[in-house]
Design brief:
mainly alpha, Multiheme cytochrome fold, 11 helices, 199 residues
Amino acid sequence: MIAKLLAMLKLVWQVLNRPSVHYSLGFLTLGGFVAGVIFWGGFNTALELASTEEFCTSCHEMESNVYQELQTTIHFTNRSGVRATCSDCHVPHEWTNKIARKMQASKEVWGKVFGTINTREKFEAKRRELAEHEWARLKANDSLECRNCHNFDYMDFTRQSKRASQMHSTSLASGDKTCIDCHKGIAHQLPDMAGVEGF
């Protein structure tokens, strides 16, 4: 039994040690593994760096417009000291959803490249369109990013205002609404909503 095991190990070693053309299969396998680890580490590091507030506000379109608005909200400064950054609201935390969002955001880079919102006037002209895209995204994913921090299961309705308690418990019971249905403009100014029902 031990002789068979040793023979199999010897055969495996010979295959791994045999040169492919210039390098052994074992060397190529080990090299591929090391290269994969380095690539994966670099990819995830870049992904995390691209999800920081510093990265998001590094272009003046964001820094001069929506970041200024965020600074005046409860999501930026509050009594508990818990602060939402850009990625908390705009990038999902789960890896697969995060990758999908990053791929979606890659086409938004065209806006930066072609200067579609590089002035305050251009940004204001496109504000409603940009907001509607984001609201539709949040509606489609059941306000996933909101639920990273806010969870109906942990809400104490008795500590909420009467109106908030009624709305939250109704939404929870019906299941047909999501956070963004009622909380548009919670972190950024609303666009001109003329002609929109409910505003």
